[in-house]
Amino acid sequence: MSFLATPSSPTIFSPLLKFPSSVGTACCLQLGRAEGYPRVTMRGGSENRKPLQKGRNLSIEAIQAVQSLKRTKKDLQQLDRVYDSKIRRLLKFDMLAVLRELLRQNECSLALKVFEDVRKEHWYKPQVSLYADIITVLASNGLFERVQIILSYMKAEADLAPEIDGFNALLKALVSHNLGELAMESYYLMKDVGCEPDKASFRIVIKGLESKGEAVDLRTVKQDAQRLYGESLEFLEEEEEGATATSIQ
Fold first, then answer.
1. Residue 130's domain spans which residues?
2. Per-residue model confidence as pLDDT tens digits over 80-122
3. Which of 124, 141, 176 is the last residue of a domain?
4. β-pairing, 28-31 with 40-43?
5. Domain presence at residue 26
6. I need a labelling partner for 170 at 20 to 30 A (CA). Which of 120, 148, 178, 193 fits?
7. DSSP 3-state assignment of 126?
């Protein structure tokens, strides 16, 4: 896949920061108990430690890659060596798993560095859902300049698929962080790639931006909603009323 259409952009990862090292805890062993025998227990590591990735097991190679990146992030030369030995040799699914795991751990600079490499791979196909995940994490960490850069990457993609759930997740992230202008840009991008907004899209954009007092022009969005769902726009209240009824029960 060619990325000649992708505009040059500033470096999107920031100076490396120091993080406190984790503190080990004692371990004990737990085995099953046969009749007449005492129970022996075993626990390893901190009880508060999160699993490396919820809902999916990472391969040994992916786990080692994540750990190596985090260990060497304070040393740029060492980090480059880790890329050569641990990252660029990964298969597609492991590389994407590393990216998503770094996002889950809010390792934004490392995740963006991996994403730069992902976009250079021959198997790379742009996915709105992946962009939405990245932008959601960046926005939640207050990295709004990087949000703009990643969104510019997304707008430059030549074969972006019309992925409604991904676009809705993206719109929700932008609206919830008061990025009204970027939300409107994403709404128009959504239409440009042939992704017809649904009721959820209109609720997120119209109700979300109005409730936050964003100074954006919503006339086109409301006209699109009326064309698809009727002049009254009563459907905008359906989700909220449903949630209220559930909470009352």
1. 125-249
2. 887 888 787 788 889 899 999 999 999 999 999 999 989 999 9
3. 124
4. antiparallel
5. no
6. 120
7. coil
